[in-house]
Amino acid sequence: SAKDAEKFYRNFYAPNRATVVVVGDVKAKDVLKLVGKYYGGLQAQNPPEKNIPKEPEQANPRRKTLKLNTQVQKVMIAYPAPPVTHEDIPALEVMRTVLTGGKSARLPKALVETGIATGIDAFDLDDKDPSILIFMANLQKGKKATQAEEIFLRQIELFKKNPISQAELDRAKNTLQAQFYDSLSAPTERANFIGHFETVSDSFRTGVELFGRIAGVTATQVQSVAQKYLRAESRSVVMGVQK
């Protein structure tokens, strides 16, 4: 109801829950004056305490096939992932980049260069709460999602059995370094970076520290997190096929 919506707004959309980010050629005292002008009259709220139950550990692989209005098949494969503040995130970011970061990464070489998929995507590991690491492929016309899944899982097992090469490790770190500096290249990007990490971790310094820790990640650590998180029993697969 309208009353429910208003109650939700009053509880959660309050100045003590907001993050205001201003970047550019400004003076702090002028910004604070404007913030006071527009936010100063709004009352702080005490929202209900969040009580998010811990999700039970997944004990068996899950899979689902969806019939979609699509010309090509798709596959998404997901594994549980820790929050952005977890100590494993730097190694997981390197792992994700070795697998999907650019044309020379393992999954594009195994799936795109071979003519099976048109592209491979993986989502960033920067959530406040435990989340999932998702890999997604759009297939070439006439190719099957099951075929892509088989190749993907084969690559994952190779990844878990053998440490990555020094060349792969260096390439992944260079890719992440370029992405980090690109994310700070313009005022809008800087504002997004600061606001995002202030919101998901209480400080933008989390993002800076995460980038700094990536430089120290070793091949052994990457293999270790692959074995820890890319487990068959915790895997979820969703396939999209034509109706």
Per-chain topology:
Elements (H helix, E strand, L loop, with lengths): L1 H11 L15 H12 L22 E7 L5 E8 L7 H12 L5 H7 L4 E6 L8 E9 L5 H17 L4 H17 L4 H15 L3 H10 L4 H11 L6 E7 L1
Parallel strand pairs: 1-5
Antiparallel strand pairs: 2-4, 2-5, 3-4
Helix pairs in contact: 3-6, 3-8, 3-9, 4-5, 5-9
The percent of residues in helical segments reads 40-55%
Largest sheet, order of strands side by side?
1-5-2-4-3
Radius of gyration: 21 Å
Output the structural class.
alpha+beta
Question: What gross morphology would you assign?
Answer: globular
What are the segments in which pLDDT stays under 50 over at least 5 consecutive residues?
none
Number of strands: 5
Number of helices: 9
Largest sheet: 5 strands, mixed
- Mean pLDDT score, rounded? 93
How much of the polypeptide forms β-strand, as a percent range?
A: 15-25%
Distance between the termini: 37 Å
The helix/strand series, from N terminus to C terminus, equals HHEEHHEEHHHHHE
Q: Could you name the key traits of this structure?
A:
243 residues, five-stranded mixed beta sheet, 9 helices, 46% helix
What does this structure look like?
The protein is an alpha+beta fold and 243 residues long. 46% of the residues lie in helices and 15% in strands. It is built from 9 helices and 5 strands, in the order ααββααββαααααβ. Strands 1-5-2-4-3 form a 5-stranded mixed beta sheet, with helices on one face. The model has no long low-confidence stretch (mean pLDDT 93).
